[in-house]
């Protein structure tokens, strides 16, 4: 019985490893998707900041064009000063020139504000581009690690299945059937270790005599609480 229990214990560990690999196979694609989404969002943010600069540059050019037109208008008005014949016409030109200069002043202020905002954005974008490059490199590194894990898991999966096939033929059919039934009912765990009189499946105390019998490995012992097959790995040290 001891040899059978040892084989069954190895089988249980293999089944747990296979379960972990299976869970990883469903988790890894989601992790990759999350990383790619993070990269996409950061790229999109940077793209919008660059688009903001393009908008500001366009507005700046329009304001500079309007400023030139206003300045040309002022020059024409100033040229007419020598042609007017009445004080009323002269005063009207002065008002027109003054209004033009005020408009120019407003345009110049707005152009300067745009230039300041553009310079600030360019400085910010330069910093963000470095941060994004670092982030993308980190993301690619994480994706490579996931790909390597998936490759290792594929190899472990293949080896685990091969070893499981061997063990299933070496274990007594009735014992294997019992284990399979318990495993299905107990979230993939049909056999558990017992430490210091505590079942590691349900973490309930087992009777002292049952613990002693489990240590001997001469018979099939099952937890009185969760019904799982108990196993003792040996070399246990008291806490």
Task: Explain how this protein is built.
The protein has 239 residues and is mostly helical. It has two domains: 152 residues, Orthogonal Bundle (Helix Hairpins); 58 residues, no CATH class. The protein has four helices and three strands. A three-stranded mixed sheet has the order 2-1-3. β1 and β2 form a beta hairpin. It is rod-shaped.
What structural class should be given to the helix and strand makeup?
mainly alpha
CATH topology of the largest domain: Helix Hairpins
User: What is the 3D shape?
Assistant: rod-shaped
Helices, by number, come to: 4
> What CATH architecture of the largest domain do you see?
Orthogonal Bundle
Largest sheet: 3 strands, mixed
How many structural domains in the coordinates? Answer: 2
- Percent strand equals under 5%
Task: Label this structure with key terms.
239 residues; mainly alpha; Helix Hairpins; 3-stranded mixed sheet; 4% strand
Quick recap:
The protein is mainly α.
Helix and strand arrangement:
Elements: H1 2-80, H2 87-170, H3 173-185, E1 191-195, E2 198-199, H4 208-216, E3 229-231
Parallel strand pairs: 1-3
Antiparallel strand pairs: 1-2
Helix pairs in contact: 1-2
